[in-house]
Amino acid sequence: MLDELVKVANTLDKRGLVKLADRLDKVITKLAEEMGGSTEKIGDTFVVKRTDGKVVLVSQEVLDHIGTHQEVGVGSIFSGNISSQQIFDFVSTVDIKPEGPPFYPASFPGGGYELVKPYEYAMSLPDAKRQDGPPHKQEFSKEADEWIDFPVAKVATSKSIEDFSKDDATVLIFKYDPGKSKDETVKLVEENLMDVHDDGDLFALATAFPGGMTIEGQSVPRVTEWGGTDNPTWAVILPNQSAPDKQEGAEELEEDIPNFDI
């Protein structure tokens, strides 16, 4: 229910019905508090206040980006059973280590599909064949202040997508850094959360994806370190390709994947 209300509020906001969106945001906040959490929406950012005093910023932009992890061809994808409320619940309760790695293992009902593999492993799959092209993987660039596309190697295989099924996921939660944050976020913190920031208790959700940070015994590097399409060391898997000479686009596989509910 909360997820649907969030969607309606965002739609109202995009249509310029700001007053109605604000009123609905207050209802969402009240419902979240009654459900045992404390979530306030300020602008396009959800402020998740935890019982241990820590606060996690969850921007709508990050939620939208997580939603791209349902399209075959961009990397590991969710099966469609994860919701924004599950994300909020996770960041509200996970044991955040301020000085530790920002990678937190999670388990969401239904999980997803681990479609990122070391290149040599990918090329050893049944009927493996390179099939590069869009959609590309993305990484956020502070300099450009947006998500940037990075072409990576893609390997089509006749192996079923169900063979790549995973129940676990990884959620990235970083300590808030004004030097790496958008101007709107910096302003939000300065006006509302400087005391939390000064205490070292302010964090931000970066992203979430199916699978872990170690795949087939190897640590997964940043996308910029995958070797691109010329000298690939990592690849995105395109499953369900029945024949090695099939040249269909990755979009034709999307019908096999339920919609991501966020």
Tell me the number of structural domains: 1
Described by its quaternary structure, the protein is single chain
Instruction: Tell me the strand order in the biggest sheet.
Output: 1-2-3-12-11-5-4
As residue ranges, the low-confidence spans are: 246-254, 257-262
Tertiary shape: globular
Roughly how many Å apart are the termini? 12 Å
Work out the helicity level.
25-40%
Helix- and strand-based class? Answer: alpha+beta
User: SSE order in H/E notation?
Assistant: HHEEEHEHEEHEEEEEHHEEEE
Give a short account of the largest sheet: 7 strands, mixed
Mean pLDDT over the residues: 81
According to DSSP, the number of beta strands is 15
Kindly estimate the percentage of residues that lie in beta strands according to DSSP.
Answer: 25-35%
Q: How many helical elements?
A: 7
Radius of gyration: 19 Å
Written account of the structure:
This protein is 26% helix and 29% strand. It has 262 residues and is α+β, with helices and mostly antiparallel strands. The protein has one domain (37-251). The strands form four sheets. A seven-stranded mixed sheet has the order 1-2-3-12-11-5-4. β8 (137-141) and β9 (146-150) form a beta hairpin. The longest helix is centred in the N-terminal third of the chain and has 17 residues, at 18-34. The protein starts with a helix and ends in a 24-residue tail after the last strand. The model is unreliable at 246-254 and 257-262 (pLDDT under 50).
List the keywords.
262 residues, alpha+beta, 7 helices, 26% helix, 29% strand, disordered C terminus
SSE arrangement:
Elements: H1 2-14, H2 18-34, E1 38-42, E2 45-49, E3 55-59, H3 60-67, E4 77-78, H4 84-93, E5 103-113, E6 116-118, H5 119-123, E7 129-130, E8 137-141, E9 146-150, E10 153-156, E11 165-175, H6 183-192, H7 194-198, E12 202-210, E13 214-215, E14 218-219, E15 234-238
Parallel strand pairs: 3-12, 10-15
Antiparallel strand pairs: 1-2, 2-3, 4-5, 5-11, 6-15, 7-10, 8-9, 11-12, 13-14
